[in-house]
């Protein structure tokens, strides 16, 4: 169950101080998780690029992906 499902399944009264602090805590944890995922993804792409391997994204026009490497398309 994700945070969205948890939030929707709970009766949270944000008009009370307890409801507001709980909502802020959930938001803080969600932001933290987003930043952690971003750091891991970025460091993985950098490590892949340092090994001269394709790190993802669109292949430039005139090139193709062959065995994990971007090579010029002679056609």
UniProtKB/TrEMBL annotation:
Gene3D superfamilies: Resolvase, N-terminal catalytic domain. InterPro entries: Resolv_N (IPR006119), Resolvase-like_N_sf (IPR036162), SSR_resolvase (IPR050639). It comes from the Bacteria. SUPFAM superfamilies: Resolvase-like. One of its GO terms (molecular function) is DNA strand exchange activity. Residues 1-52 form the Resolvase/invertase-type recombinase catalytic domain. This is Resolvase/invertase-type recombinase catalytic domain-containing protein. It comes from Paenibacillus albilobatus.
């Amino acid at each position: 169950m994700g945070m969205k499902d948890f939030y929707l399944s709970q009766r949270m009264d944000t008009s009370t101080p307890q409801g507001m602090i709980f909502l802020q805590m959930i938001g803080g944890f969600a932001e933290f998780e987003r930043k952690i995922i971003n750091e891991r993804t970025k460091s993985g792409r950098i490590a892949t690029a340092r090994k001269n391997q394709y790190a993802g994204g669109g292949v430039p026009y005139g090139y193709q992906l062959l065995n994990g490497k971007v090579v010029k398309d002679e056609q």
